[in-house]
Protein: mRNA export factor-like
Organism: Thrips palmi
Amino acid sequence: MFQPNALGANTSFGGARTQQTTAVVKDFEVMAPPEDSVSSLAFSPAALQQNFLVAGSWDNNVRCWEVEQTGKTIPKSMQNCDGPVLDVCWTDDGTKVMMASCDKQVKCWDLGSNQTLQVAQHDAPVKTCHWIKSPNYTCLMTGSWDKTLKFWDMRSANPMMTITLPERCYGAAVDYPMAVVITAGKQLIIYQLEGKPQEFRRAETNLKHQHRCVAIMRDKKASPTGYAVGSVEGRVAIQYINAANPKDNFTFKCQRINGANNSFQEIYAVNDIAFHPVHNTVATCGSDGTFNFWDKDSRTKLKSSEQFDQPITRCCFNHNGQIFAYALSYDWHKGHEFYNPQKKNAIFLHPCYEDTKPRNPSAS
């Protein structure tokens, strides 16, 4: 896969920046990017030998690229929805992509035939879609602003199950047998998916403001063991389902920039979180226009990117952790008056395997 770049300078965990902490690195730019803000990114699963990347956008489209070993991207196809696309996900065999939209529907894109079919319906925009592969069933999980979580086997127009949420769904993460859903009002609900989906626990974090993104982390045996939640206040909470020690659960600051003479901090929203599939280190990105790699076990920052002139709205790793994709788009955190149509949307691929290695490989 990609040749790794050199590691950036060491910085303390949670530290803010007064300037760029890493030299500008020439990452690989994805060709023919979306024409509006990028809302979702997802790499193809391990079932496919080649890497493919899909991106959903507020321009109502989902695009697919083939990623060559050289880092070059080849636009393969594009599908249109009847509203802005808020989320995308792959089926486990890599043959189909699900597209959740503000048109209150989820469509299934069959990549082989290049045809789409509606497979889910809500009463409000669909914020999240996740594919669940279990020993007993296979289904699509969708979360909506209509305050419901629905599960679909896609052979029926009606959901297998509907769960009422306390508020609008703002984000979700799935790693069988676990799902975590965040909603408006700072609600966080953990579901167990074994047998059939059912609520396991409602949890609280030490975050003071609205949750914005969530990702599930694994233990050394590759089993889901907890989750990370990012908020609009530039902080991330790391929480274990069954913490051996209460101190194992902690929060750290990120997506912050020191002001003049370190007299204040500019605080930015955490837009996305992703765990490395091999190292289990974690990436964050946000409205400050940077991405960061962190070692949660030794509580150290591994690398900070340069500061871009646009927010980073989404990020993800490919299935073997060699490639880190991130999207530059305006996220409207400063309102419409700061929107600059001259700034184009962009997606970049960063060779990340060495950058994301833990400092202390023996850390649990």
